[in-house]
C-alpha cells in the first residue's frame, strides 16, 4: 500500500519507518527542507534506539522516501497520515491545532481518487470532524474518509511499541476506511495485536484518557513516596506490594522527580481544557497536573536540604537531563526546573547526559557540561541523579568519591542501594526510602 506521513518528526518518522518495514511504500513529507535533506543523508533529527538502522534499511529497499513535495506524494497515496505537532497553545493550555488544520488544507488540494486521511497526531475530541469539514469545504467532490488512529509510542521504545502494540485503536464508522486500516496493520496479525474499532470521537478521547491515567498513576506513587519518607516506609516495596495486584499492575509505579516529556504534560492540560469547555471538569486530572508541576519545583529544595540548607557557591553535578533515558527529548524534563531552582539559590551546575546535551544547551544557560559522569563529578559538593540512564546504574563509586569535593549524593530515581552508598561514606538521599538502609530484596 502507498502511504504518506505528513510530518517527519517523532511520530511520523517512527511510524513511517515501521510501516515501510512491514512492506508498505511510505513517503514522509515535511516542510523543513533541511530536515528532509538530513534524512536523505541518513541523519536522524531525534535519538531513538534502532531508528537510524531501520530508516537506512528501508531507504535502501526503496520502501521509504522523504520529500517536501506534499502534492505529488498525496496524489499517489491510498492512505495519508497527519502526524504533525500539537503543542500546548501559549497562554491558555489548549492544544495548538494549527499544524493539523493546515495539513488538512494541503491534503485537500492534492487528493486524487479515494483516500483515507488518518489523524495520528494527538488531538482533542472533535478534531476529526473539523478535519473532515475543512477537506469537504475545500474539495466538495473528493472521495475520502477521515479516521482517528492514535499512537501509543513510548520514547526510547517506540519501534518495539509500534511492532508489538498492546492495542490498535481505529476510530471510524466507515467500513471501507476500516478495511484499509486493517490492511495497513495486517502484518501485526501474527502478533495477535487486538484491534479496537470505535467511533472517531471515542478514539480521540481514548488517547487522552490513557495518558491522563498513566500520569495520575505516576503522581500517586510520588505522593506515596513523600508519605513514606515521613513515616519510615519504603516506597519501592509499597509499589511492589500494590503492583502485584493485577488490577493495578506494576508499571508506572516508580517514584521520582515528576513526569515530563512531550506527551503527559501537554495532553493532561489539553484534556482538562476540553472537559472544562464541556462543563464536566476532571478534578482528579487537574490535581495530577498541579501536583506534578509542584513536585518538579520541589526537587531543588530537596537537594538544598540534603546539602545542609545552603547551596550558594556550591558546585552541583547533575547526571541526566532528558525526561527519561534512551531519548534526547528535553521537553518538560524535571531537570529544567531542578537546575533553574538550584541556580536561583546560587549553585554552580555541571551536567552530563549521554544524548540530551545538544538540546539542553538551547534551553539552559549559565551551566557547564562534562564529557562523562566522572568529569561531571569533579570538584562537586553534591551529585544529583535525575535520569536513570543505564550508564549511571553501575558507576565506579570509588572514582566518583575521589572526584568530588563533598560527599552528598541525591538519587532522584532510586537506582542505588542506600546501605551500599552510605557504607562508602556518602550522605545519601533518595525518594521515598529510609536513607542509609537497604531495601529488602
Protein architecture, described:
This protein has 441 residues and is α/β, with parallel strands linked by helices. It has 2 domains: 2-198, Rossmann fold; 234-429, NAD(P)-binding Rossmann-like Domain (Rossmann fold, 3-Layer(aba) Sandwich). The protein has 17 helices and 14 strands. It has helices spanning 10-21, 33-40, 51-60, 70-75, 98-108, 127-138, 158-163, 175-184, 200-231, 235-243, 264-277, 283-306, 334-344, 357-363, 373-377, 397-403, 418-423, and strands at 2-6, 25-29, 64-67, 79-82, 115-119, 144-148, 168-171, 195-198, 315-319, 348-352, 368-369, 382-385, 408-411, 427-429. Helix 5 packs parallel to helix 6 (127-138). The longest helix is centred in the middle third of the chain and has 32 residues, at 200-231. The chain is globular, with a radius of gyration of 24 Å. It starts with a strand and ends in a 12-residue tail after the last strand. 47% of the residues are buried.
Name the assembly state: single chain
Terminus-to-terminus distance: 51 Å
For the secondary structure, the number of strands is 14
Could you tell me the CATH topology label of the largest domain: Rossmann fold
Instruction: Tell me the number of structural domains.
Output: 2
Shape: globular
